[in-house]
Specification:
The protein has 451 residues and is mainly alpha-helical. Helix content is 63%, strand content 6%. It contains 22 helices and 6 strands. Helix 15 links the parallel strand 4 (214-215) and strand 5. Helix 8 (98-107) crosses helix 10 and helix 19 packs parallel to helix 21. The model has no long low-confidence stretch (mean pLDDT 83).
Amino acid sequence: MEQITKFELTQQFHDRFQQALSARDKSFIAATLEEVNPADITALLYEFNSEESKFVLDLLPVPVRAQIINDLDTDTRKKFLTIYTPTELTEIINQLDSDDVADILNELPIQVSEEIIGNLEPDLKLQVIDLLRYDEHVAGGLMAKELIRVRANWTVGECLDEIRKQAETVTKFYTAWVVDDKDKLLGQVSLQKLIVSDPKTLVENICDENIVRVGTYVEDREVVEIMKKYDLESIPVVNVQGQLVGRITIDDVVDVISEQVEEERQLMSGITEDVEENDDLWKNVRARLPWLLIGIFGGMLSARFMGFFQQELTKITAIAFFVPLIQATGGNVGIQSSGLVVQSLASPGYLEEGLWQRLIKMFYISFLNAFLLSLIVLGSTYLFFNNNRLSVVVSIALFCVVMFSSFVGTITPILINRLGFNPALASGPFITTASDLLGLTTYFLTVHVLL
């Protein structure tokens, strides 16, 4: 078994490596990285500029170079590939699977992309051209064309011989897909079953016809859910005629999941575009400003609303002391509720399992939380202010705020999801601002009625 050197990027190593780069010490760089895992080399190259990184990569074997470039995040790779010539890129890209090639070509200028396609190896060229027809967010754009394809009327012996030939261009396979003479998908047969079966047995006799498949038009998010549900390492992709056209592997699905998590994280943080810290100034400002403006607008509405209750504030100034408590509690409750719902909406059939039952359960949870919190506030307020009436009013107001904020936090992501938008929108500044306004309204109305 090949042994991979354990790699640790310390400041001392970084400084020594930088010194070697500055001196263009090829022997030190090559010797240092010779047995290092390509993934660790990828992490190392993020520490240096594009020219320095290219110098390092040019010292490595082409297959390793291709794997490292393929592992780079999309934004970094777009910038990095601009320093390569089409000829250099063609040499690297010829080492990758068809789906990875299609992804990289979509990141390049059309003129460069077309020049590279023209110089690809013939089989890879045909596969890539076919993949480029599909949108990147459907199964057709996610799949790879490399797979193990066998005929139903072959014997196990013939099948194993063909697998040995096909395996030269296919990596990470555990299953052979069984097709008829027109390439229509019939089923699958595991490598384990092929190995233990008699060589004269027909493949159709050991084929598992009960398999999960997806069409080329299925959205990538749905592909992710299907593979998670059935615990699949790969899934076949078929066209509208039922013909086998590709496969999607678990590593492709992990990439989609990572993109979804990043998108939802940014939405929940109130960032409307896909940005990184090192992106240009205006792009960062543009991504953050809209939700900040909504927050300011909400704050101005809160201030204007408080102006309607000047008389109550004049009578009992202690009322104002509890405004931060009411707003903070309402915002926290709203975010908690919406966060749980957003997480649940990621599971297929969440709403079909019984919306009313879930809302009733959420009501009971909110009621218990509201009751306990209001009791705590009742006792604390009386202890610090020694005012029975004020303590009762604040505790009742807090009870109402928790109930209403929980309802808003629960129902808002469901409505947003029904409208076809990402429900994560409801878990950031939107729900915080809404809960602040709702909490303030509830609080002062309660004060107005009871004081």
